[in-house]
Write a structure and sequence with these properties.
It is a single chain. By secondary structure, the chain is α/β, with parallel strands linked by helices. It has 13 helices and seven strands. A seven-stranded mixed β-sheet has the order 3-2-1-4-5-7-6, sandwiched between helices. Helix 11 (221-234) runs parallel beside helix 12 (249-262). Bound molecules: S-adenosylmethionine. S-adenosylmethionine binds at residues 14, 16, 37-38, 40-44, 60-63, 66, 87-88, 108-112, 135, 224.
Amino acid sequence: MAWGASEGVLSAFHEPVLLTEVVRLLAPERGGVFLDGTVGGGGHAEAILRAGTGVRLLALDRDAEALESARDRLRSFAGRVEYREGDFAETADLFGLGEGALAGVLLDLGVSSHQIDRLERGFTFRAGAPLDMRMSRRSSTTAAELLEAATAEELGEIFRTYAEERRGRRLAAGLVEARRRKPLRKSDDLIEAIEAVWGRRVAESDLARIFQALRIAVNHELDSLGAGLPVLRDLLQPGGRLVVISYHSLEDRLVKRAFREWGRDCVCPPGLPECRCRGRALGRELTRKPVRPEAAETDRNPRARSARLRAWESAG
Ligand SMILES: C[S@@+](CC[C@H](N)C(=O)[O-])C[C@H]1O[C@@H](n2cnc3c(N)ncnc32)[C@H](O)[C@@H]1O
């Protein structure tokens, strides 16, 4: 389920989600090198750095603008922070790290309020937004280009899988029809085309799901997460912790399955006469159930509503 995708409210900056839980689970007061793989506006990063002078932070984001705002916010910790632009799946190369280098890793997935607020980035369904949605301006395909080039089958799959939209195929066929008449370049073009297919004014919650599905496809978000999780696990030192906040059920499922699999002693296919795999658990889950924000947080920050946090500790 695309857990009630929402654009939330316009905000001057991004309010970090589940901040107390993140700091409690990462335990930065132990000191060491921590990676914020999705540093965004630097809210979580600041709290991690504040835990003590023994903390060094590697700050990473795909979005150059996000890195700029993090740099600004974290100016007073300058000597203790290193910045890189890129995908967290490429952490090892970007920072030149070997196995066991990190005391903790945070991934706070999805987009920041800052990205949504900036009309020209095209993450929003507000009127006049270009259909861009790229987290990294270095990547080539915008949402408009995807909507122009994808087949009806590909678009249907995006809507069915990422938006859990039962009418995804019909919607995709309608959009392919609409783009023949007029290219889909702006949020308004897409909304008009969706309304023409469904024959009614579309609720904001439906628009949020459709736009979120396109964003996930444009940025290959699930591929990055699937590739990044084992890389980040192997960078953890014994007792090192990986904390992931997801905002979509498919992300959370991926994290949950990875943590369960890593926690098993034996991952051989059933029926083998003897164990031939690694033969030991790689660590343990610290959260048996996903941690969710309390009502006070979601009242204050509607974006937090869909957040699910899971944490894992490496055995080394
Ligand atoms: C929810 S925001 C993070 C907010 C941040 N925790 C804070 O306190 O301000 C998510 C950020 O992750 C970045 N991002 C998403 N996927 C990424 C990936 N695969 N690699 C690097 N950055 C990514 C986005 O560009 C965005 O800035």
